[in-house]
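hey
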């Protein structure tokens, strides 16, 4: 960019850490006016310190948006309605946060008249895809600068030592405490840990790794008893059945479930997953509130939803989880699935009682005004409006296919 050209404004997703601080200074070197942007999605960060650091490094402005309630209402709770999960174990905490953060970046870019946005995601991970697909969907004309995919950047900063030397040369404050031998990313829904010593899947994660949850072995010896009230698949109230405390409000009840779930060691998983870009990675995740809500929601859904409708909904939820993981939150197909799943939740209302004990979430009772459970019909002591002899024809019709298959298969085996 020549001196005669006006500087272009760029909004950088800024955490205040070493990587994004170096990127901030590097972007200024490339001739950009940098607006540092931080989304508060529940991570335990010092936003005032990040602001002072960004401005001292040359950012023309620092913007921090509190997106916590937006994150819960418009991203986490639709995932709760879906029972969303990726590859059977990952509850999508990072994947759900990225479109929320990207919407904040694009909002700030629009308000500040910035034509470019930037981020510090690496060229090997999922986050680059999630950030950029969301950005292009929300603002088709935006230009994205991804330093870790630019040869002039990644060849210059081939290792962390190069970043440290660059930071020293440009008076970028270095971390006061030693860096953990793994990377960590947190938000309201979860904390994830990967890289470093965790890259070897044969190596057990350190006992002191997790910060959001207690080890189940060290959790209280007395179970916590709670109930969760759902309205159309959305949790609206949590009650502590021991103390009588009631918590309402989306952000408030989610924060409470994180706290009580973390105290009882809920929501830890150590998995290998398939990244969208084509490689496998190992990650450790803590998702206490998400784990509790998924168990409770599945229970009230089974109670209130027709069997065949739920089979269809489960297939949609599988696709939804993959779309979220791959960064397609703002795609037309993902919106269609969210609309379908939301429609399926019209009668998923009721209350679920749970026991939280040493890492386990145990449903103990449930009730709903829309329950499809007929106690008289299912009772072994009352015949109810059911004729047992009807089962004979039901079995014979369902056996027809099996009998024919094995009869003909037997003929083929003998030929």
């Amino acid at each position: 960019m020549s001196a005669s050209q006006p500087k272009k404004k760029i909004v950088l997703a800024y955490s205040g850490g070493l990587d994004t601080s170096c990127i901030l200074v590097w972007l200024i070197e490339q001739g950009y006016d940098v607006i540092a942007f931080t989304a508060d999605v529940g991570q335990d960060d010092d936003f005032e310190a990040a602001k002072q650091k960004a401005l001292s490094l040359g950012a023309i402005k620092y913007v921090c948006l509190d997106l916590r309630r937006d994150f819960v209402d418009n991203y986490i709770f639709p995932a709760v309605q879906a029972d969303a999960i990726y590859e059977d174990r990952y509850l999508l905490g990072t994947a759900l946060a990225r479109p929320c953060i990207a919407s904040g970046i694009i909002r700030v870019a629009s308000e500040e008249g910035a034509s470019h946005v930037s981020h510090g995601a690496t060229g090997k991970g999922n986050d680059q895809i999630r950030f950029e697909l969301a950005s292009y969907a929300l603002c088709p004309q935006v230009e994205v600068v991804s330093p870790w995919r630019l040869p002039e950047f990644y060849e210059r900063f081939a290792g962390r030592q190069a970043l440290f030397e660059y930071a020293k040369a440009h008076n970028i404050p270095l971390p006061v405490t030693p860096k953990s031998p793994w990377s960590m990313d947190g938000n309201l829904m979860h904390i994830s840990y990967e890289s470093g010593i965790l890259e070897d899947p044969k190596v057990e994660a350190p006992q002191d790794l997790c910060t959001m949850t207690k080890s189940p072995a060290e959790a209280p010896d007395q179970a916590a008893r709670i109930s969760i009230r759902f309205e159309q698949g959305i949790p609206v109230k949590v009650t502590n059945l021991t103390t009588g405390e009631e918590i309402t409000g989306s952000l408030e009840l989610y924060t409470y479930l994180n706290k009580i779930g973390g105290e009882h060691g809920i929501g830890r998983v150590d998995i290998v997953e398939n990244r969208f870009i084509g490689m496998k990675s190992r990650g450790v995740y803590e998702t206490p509130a998400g784990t509790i809500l998924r168990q409770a929601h599945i229970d009230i859904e089974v109670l209130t939803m027709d069997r065949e409708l739920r089979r269809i909904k489960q297939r949609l939820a599988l696709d939804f989880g993959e779309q979220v993981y791959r960064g397609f939150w703002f795609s037309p197909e993902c919106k269609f699935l969210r609309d379908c799943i939301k429609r399926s939740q019209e009668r998923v209302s009721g209350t679920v009682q749970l026991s939280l004990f040493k890492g386990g979430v145990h449903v103990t009772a449930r009730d709903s005004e829309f329950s499809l459970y007929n106690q008289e019909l299912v009772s072994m002591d009352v015949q109810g409006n059911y004729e047992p002899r009807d089962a004979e024809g039901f079995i014979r019709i369902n056996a027809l296919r099996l009998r024919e298959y094995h009869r003909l298969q037997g003929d083929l085996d003998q030929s």
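The chain has two domains: 9-181, 184-367. The mean pLDDT is 94.
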